[in-house]
């Protein structure tokens, strides 16, 4: 970043000499060169010196690198374009989004470093890309990030949940398809309002506020907007009682599905979430009408499995 500010005229030659290192045999050299170029992409000097396209192509080429850290840094560089050259993101949006999706699908990433960087990159890029480019990948991204909602790593929970909330901005025109994704994640988002990490709770509040308008229930949308503000203390039991009342009025046919998802959290590693799940079920059963009571599998409910 210091060189971007003070050594502009020298950068083209430095970049030219670094690029061969990106395909070198030594991990340490590939990591260093990738890190340098990734940081350079967060400055508009990359565009000013006509370095953006060649550096972007080289970052994209590093996605198959054998070193996890190189793959992660390459995605960081591509995401940094949103900071350094936001006006270029729209032009290259489809390519940049495809790179991030590839990062989410990285199979040789036991610590999920690449996936976490891909989610961070997507969050930065989504503010600048064409809506049609996002909609082409919307469903894939939503399905891919869903398992991270329950990750043991707080950063993965926070990033995936916040990204899910941001994705809802692009769901217009794919409403029915994305509505299904909202329903799939709804129980998890509501339960993680009791997450032990405050940053995850804030992400859940944001995601639910974003999902509210797509729920087709004005009462539920108003509740999410009014009660899930970051500056407001949430009275969880009272809130969930009212949420379940709206859910059973608007989606009574979903009772069994909501109960089944909650049963999964009876064995959660987080005590507050384990406590919230049976309370959630209790409020659902309390507010369901007699006609839909038959959906409840009492044997399953009593056994808690």
From TrEMBL:
SUPFAM superfamilies: ARM repeat
Top-level taxon in the UniProt lineage: Eukaryota
Protein name, entry field: MROH1 protein
GO cellular component: cytoplasm
Boundaries of every Maestro/Maestro-like HEAT-repeats domain copy: 57-303
TM segment ranges: none
Alphabetized InterPro entries for the sequence: ARM-like (IPR011989), ARM-type_fold (IPR016024), HEAT_Maestro (IPR055406), Maestro_heat-like_prot (IPR045206)
Natural source organism: Zapornia atra (Henderson crake)
